TrEMBL record, chain A:
It is found in: Cytoplasmic vesicle membrane; Golgi apparatus. Belongs to the adaptor complexes small subunit family. One of its GO terms (cellular component) is AP-1 adaptor complex. Its main location: membrane. This is AP complex subunit sigma.
Automatic annotation (TrEMBL), chain B:
Belongs to the adaptor complexes large subunit family. GO terms for biological process: clathrin-dependent endocytosis; intracellular protein transport. One of its GO terms (molecular function) is clathrin adaptor activity. It comes from the Eukaryota. Residues 987-997 have a biased composition (Pro residues). One of its GO terms (cellular component) is AP-2 adaptor complex. It holds the Pfam family Adaptin_N. This is AP-2 complex subunit alpha. A 1,2-diacyl-sn-glycero-3-phospho-(1D-myo-inositol-3,4,5-trisphosphate) binds at residues 7-8, 49, 53-57. It comes from Salix viminalis (Common osier). Adaptor protein complex 2 (AP-2) is a heterotetramer composed of two large adaptins (alpha-type and beta-type subunits), a medium adaptin (mu-type subunit) and a small adaptin (sigma-type subunit). Residues 985-1004 are annotated as: Disordered.
Length: 150, 1016
């Protein structure tokens, strides 16, 4: 689960990128925390773990703590699991945007921002309800307009 | 099935999923991109819902790996939407689709700032997240103060503050100046008192970033980190939701320990004690359990604790305890733990005193060589290599040899190289060494590089006692039915030289030896045939009285190859034939090879190149970093077993009596005493070695003549400033210093001209180290000012006197350097146009009542702005012809050149990043090189150099330099001349400004830096 690979990197943040990839090689989520324009090659470590049909990969610097990152992956998966209710690859395909929301509550700048699953779940729920409320408002307005123009 | 809530998006995703192949998928994607493009272009405004849907599709397509080069504007524009749902999409898609270098981002800065300083908490969160993920330098400059305000605001809720902390971390990384150290250090310490663990985790990450750059300012945070660790270790005030598989936030524990590793030491005994209590608890309390996640999390903490223990130089007892723990992990079932156990054990090798405890686990480590996981096998190999010494070399090397036949192909080359090096370094007796190498060639010939057999030949040549043994062994291997070509080479060589020593043994008559070697000839390639021919000639020569029958056979062979298409073979055949006809006169010419001059093993260099990834290397790096911060040693980055190696080598081989060698070894000894990095340039050694071995064996005569220049080659350029006259760094009038520098300042300067880190200056009070990175025309130097005393150095001042062609910015140098502390002063540097002038650092400090003032040249010299490049013959000649004459192409006959052989000159050129292109010039006495020069005015500029030497008189040569810029051509020519002429740089007149350089460099005479550099 720990593999040393060569990639182009600037080595600035703990986690340089996150990649979800299926066993067939289809990408399900990508998130880059460093731009990869510089041509320097440096050794980095790819930490990955497979859950059913999906590989969760995070790329870190070789001096970083690999096991810590391995558990960040698991932490992410547990939160997805809680959010989708026993998450499967299909959930992540059709709701890839939700996976991005969740990831943004866990990592910023390639660093862990929240280690409480409860807190993350609460924040995501709050966001969802904001979106819902907005939708309801919009539809009620369009109802009113529809009524008025009848 | 969960659906996205947007029908169009779901349909698109389904379509993509239903594509039977990549071709179809591309078609579907192209169609969708076309559709989105028209919708965005159409005059009819899109509703927010539509916009949202399209940007999601764009992100999806982008995620699949297709280029999405339009519509960025639409994504960015959603950020300014008034409602949450649109804004959220805008922020998330923008931060995934764009990166910090995108111009569109700049358009959003104002909107983002308004969201950050606005009252809406959810908007604040969105904005902080995006800036934290992709904010660049410009964001850094315009937003940092606002983000700082949010982080310390008492009215903000934790959800905003934790995001602000990480956002600030990114802004700081993009531009460290945005965090004002004086003002921020106290705030940072306060942040670590935070109760909310989310905010605390983020803040600790921020701290790690801050202290990694500059720990000095943040001493007040050190006790707080220890407090955090205590709080977590005792599980005090940790809400249930922050424990992970029963462990109080493992991530926060790791981060706090990481931060502590950036502080050189912990001086306060109370804090140190509390910390060690926590560490002890972690070391003792971690067990291997069934649950994988709990295991990983607790071991993540444990390995970080180990790193911290090593960093703090704990007592031997605790270190041994760590080794014992690691030994336990190596035997564990869980592969990740096994891997990390081995890796960390390798790091432990850097700690003195624990080697014996590590050796206790040797058997287990050897077992790991057979692990099913290749990463683990590699780590085991690294560890065995690192832990090998005289006491266990035999066991370990034999184990490696045994493993060689079973090892994966991917590992064999590294494995054989390592076995060869260990055998050489730690051989209890030399015959064992020969055994090992021959076995190695026998078992893994394909993976044994030439260097390895060259080396064994060198050893045998230099040790008379070994010669009969080696020859007998070689003879034995030749009896094997199928042997590797390398084995043919090495046995043929050894038997050619020493088979006469075996004459009385059965099966070893000249004729028998000849025929057993000749049997192999049909099976070998053209590179081996010349060696065989030499062997035949040598056998003939040794056969006294001559055996007419053998002579006839061998002559027939020489005859046959006289018309061989391969020039090397042809030449040897002709020459040997003619020579062997001469009878007794032959004896001198074909006599045994003289001893080789003592050299650093070329293998070691190769090993270093071969495994940049090994744990050992990263441990060296780690250690080097630590040394920089606490031990004030910046230079000695030799591999762990580099030091015993020199000793081992010298004692292993009898030192041959050639004067050149003694110089070389003395040189080496001196340089080590000085503490500078080894001055031996491995390059000439390996090049020479090849020349010696593959050149016609005896025709060139003994290498005595070449050896006489050995000291020059070995000491490289440091040898240049041999006169002490100009060594004074202070102009005579100002010689008020009573403090004498340690080591030769000029030598240090010249050494640093060739490498990028090392000591620039040292005296009893201070050591100034330097570390440089060069990129095109820019450079970044860090000065490490280390106070060696137990009392502070005050009135520290550093002033840069730059020559006009360099733009240099030195960051603030603190006035006081605390006792035994080291401060780092970064220095940004830009090369404006070509010039050889040197920048000078005027450095002064007060120690007691002494005012010490030194002027040091900075190694920001012309060759640092060169990038090696090799060009093809066509490119070279095209360019060479197009630059037809002065001022772009200049030629000069240089006299008084240090006599260097072409190989030595080649390595000298290569060390200055002038790539020598062998074979371009048809005349073998000439040398052609190319390089690229970078400066702001010239941009990358190709430079071509040709040196024509006169083999009859090595002290003169003709040099031609060409480039597209007249100043550059002139400066580069002068620069190379300075390196070649024995009169060192420093003695040239202050302002030699040539007519060509004059117009572009009018300030040269009035520029204080340039003047000073000229004087030095």
């Amino acid at each position: 689960m720990l593999v040393a690979v060569n990639v182009l990197s600037t080595c600035m943040f703990q986690i340089q990128f996150v990649l979800l990839i299926s066993r067939q090689g289809k990408v399900r989520l990508t998130k880059w925390y460093s731009p990869y324009t510089q041509k320097e090659r440096s050794k980095v470590i790819l930490v990955y773990k497979r859950y059913a049909s999906l590989y969760f990969c995070m790329c870190i610097d070789q001096d970083d703590n690999e096991l810590e990152v391995l558990e960040i992956i698991h932490h992410f998966v547990e939160i997805l699991d809680r959010y989708f209710g026993s998450v499967c690859e299909l959930d992540l395909i059709f709701n890839f945007h939700k996976a991005y929301y969740v990831l943004d509550e866990i990592l910023i700048a390639g660093e862990l921002q929240e280690s409480s699953k409860k807190t993350v779940a609460r924040l995501i729920a709050a966001q969802d309800s904001l979106v819902e409320t907005a939708k309801e408002q919009a539809s009620s307005i369009s109802n009113i307009i529809a009524q008025a123009t009848k | 099935m969960a659906l996205s809530g947007m029908r169009g998006l779901s349909v698109f995703i389904s379509d993509i999923r239903n594509c039977p192949n990549k071709e179809q998928e591309r078609l579907r994607v192209d169609k969708e991109l076309g559709n989105i493009r028209t919708r965005f272009k159409s005059e009819k405004g899109l509703t927010h819902y539509e916009k949202k849907k399209y940007v999601w599709k764009m992100l999806y397509i982008h995620m699949l790996g297709y280029d999405v080069d339009f519509g960025h504007m639409e994504a960015v524009s959603l950020i300014s939407a008034p409602k949450y749902p649109e804004k959220q999409v805008g922020y998330i898609v923008t931060s995934s689709l764009l990166n910090e270098n995108h111009d569109f981002l700049r358009l959003a800065i104002n909107t983002v700032r308004n969201d950050i300083i606005g009252r809406n908490e959810t908007f604040q969160c969105l904005a902080l997240t995006m800036v934290g993920n992709i904010g660049g330098r410009e964001f850094s400059e315009s937003l940092a103060p606002d983000v700082q305000k949010l982080l310390i605001s008492s009215s903000c809720r934790p959800l905003v503050r934790k995001k602000a902390a990480l956002c600030l971390l990114r802004l700081y990384r993009k531009n460290p100046d945005v965090v004002n150290i004086d003002g921020w250090a106290d705030r940072m310490a306060q942040l670590l008192d935070e109760r909310d663990l989310g905010v605390l985790t983020s803040s600790t990450s921020l701290l790690v970033a801050l202290v990694s750059n500059n720990h000095e300012a943040y001493w007040s945070c050190l006790p707080k980190c220890v407090k955090i660790l205590e709080r977590l270790a005792r599980n005090q005030d940790i809400p249930q939701e922050y424990t992970y598989y029963g462990i109080p936030s493992p991530w926060l524990q790791v981060k706090a320990m990481r931060a502590l590793q950036y502080f050189p030491t912990i001086e306060d005994p109370n804090i140190r004690r509390s910390l060690f209590e926590v560490l002890q608890r972690i070391l003792m309390g971690t067990d291997v359990v069934k649950n994988v996640n709990k295991n990983n999390a607790s071991h993540a903490v444990l390995f970080e604790a180990l790193a911290l223990v090593m960093h703090l130089d704990a007592e031997k007892e605790m270190m041994s305890q760590c080794v014992a723990l690691l030994g336990k992990f190596i035997a564990v079932r869980e592969p990740n733990i096994r891997y990390l156990g081995l890796e960390n054990m390798s790091r432990m090798l850097m700690v003195t005193d624990v080697h014996d405890s590590i050796k206790r686990h040797q058997a287990q480590i050897i077992t790991s060589l057979k692990d099913p996981d290749i990463s683990i096998r590699r780590r085991a190999l690294d560890l065995l290599y690192g832990m090998c010494d005289v006491s266990n070399a035999k066991d370990i090397v034999e184990e490696l040899l045994q493993y060689l036949s079973a090892a994966d192909f991917a590992m064999r080359e590294e494995l054989s190289l390592k076995a060869a090096i260990l055998a050489e370094k730690f051989a209890p007796d030399l015959s064992w060494y020969v055994d090992v190498i021959l076995q190695l060639i026998d078992k893994a010939g394909d993976f044994v590089s030439d260097d390895i057999w060259f080396r064994v030949v060198q050893f045998v040549t230099n040790n008379e006692d070994l010669q009969p043994y080696a020859a007998a062994k070689a003879r034995e291997y030749l009896d094997k039915p199928a042997i590797h070509e390398t084995m043919v080479k090495v046995s043929a060589y050894l038997l050619g030289e020493y088979s006469h020593l075996l004459a009385r043994r059965p099966g070893c008559s000249p004729k028998e030896i000849f025929s057993v070697i000749h049997e192999k000839l049909p099976t070998v390639s053209t590179t081996t045939i010349p060696i065989l021919l030499s062997t035949y000639a040598k056998i003939l020569m040794h056969t006294q009285p001559a055996d007419p029958e053998l002579q006839k056979i061998v002559w027939a062979i020489f005859n046959k190859y006289e018309s061989c298409i391969d020039v090397e073979i042809q030449q040897r055949a002709v020459e040997y034939f003619a020579l062997s006809k001469k009878g007794a006169a032959l004896m001198d010419i074909l006599a045994e090879m003289p001893k080789f001059p003592e050299r650093q093993s070329a293998l070691l260099k190769k090993a270093e190149d071969a495994e940049v990834d090994s744990a050992e290397q990263s441990a060296i790096k780690l250690r080097a970093q630590q040394q920089m911060s606490n031990a004030l040693v910046v230079t000695d980055q030799r591999p762990a077993n580099g030091a015993p190696q020199t000793v081992g080598e010298l004692s292993l081989v009898k030192i041959p009596s050639m004067s050149g060698d003694q110089h070389a070894s003395v040189d080496q000894g001196l340089s080590q005493a000085n503490g500078t990095m080894t001055t031996v340039d491995p390059q000439p050694a390996s090049v020479d070695l090849l020349g010696d071995l593959l050149g016609p064996l005896a025709i060139e005569g003994p290498p005595g003549a070449a050896v006489q220049f050995e000291p020059n080659a070995v000491s490289g350029l440091e040898g240049v400033p041999s006169s002490a006259d100009y060594a004074a760094i202070v102009p005579v009038g100002e010689q008020t210093n009573t403090v004498q520098p340690i080591g030769n300042i000029n030598e240090r300067f010249y050494a640093l001209c060739l490498k990028d880190s090392g000591v620039l200056y040292e005296d009893p009070n201070i050591q100034i180290g330097i570390k440089a990175e060069w990129r095109a025309h820019q450079g970044r130097l860090v000065l490490f000012l280390g106070n060696k005393n137990t009392s502070p150095l005050v009135s520290v001042q550093a002033l840069i006197l730059p020559p006009v062609h360099l733009k240099i910015e030195l960051s603030l140098v603190p006035e006081t350097i605390p006792p035994r502390a080291q401060v780092q002063c970064p220095l940004e540097l830009m090369n404006l146009h070509p010039s050889r002038d040197v920048a000078v650092l005027e450095f002064s400090y007060k120690f007691g009542t002494n005012m010490v003032n030194v002027k040091l040249r900075l190694p920001a010299v012309l060759n640092k702005f060169l990038q090696p490049i090799s060009v093809s013959a066509e490119e070279f000649f095209l360019q060479w012809r197009s630059l037809s004459g002065p001022p772009l192409k200049l030629q000069e006959v240089v006299r008084g050149v240090k006599p260097l052989s072409l190989t030595e000159m080649t390595s000298l050129f290569n060390s200055f990043r002038l790539t020598v292109c062998p074979g371009l010039d048809p005349n073998p006495n000439n040398l052609v090189a190319s390089t690229t020069f970078y400066s702001e005015s010239t941009r990358p500029m190709l430079c071509l150099i040709r040196i024509e030497t006169d083999p009859a008189d090595l002290t003169q040569l003709r040099m031609t330099v060409a480039s597209g810029d007249p100043t550059l051509t002139f400066e580069l020519k002068e620069f190379i001349k300075e390196q070649l002429v024995s009169i060192p740089t420093a003695s040239r007149p202050p302002a030699p400004a040539p007519p060509a350089a004059q117009p572009t460099n009018p300030a040269a005479l009035t520029d204080p830096g340039a003047l000073l550099a000229g004087l030095l």
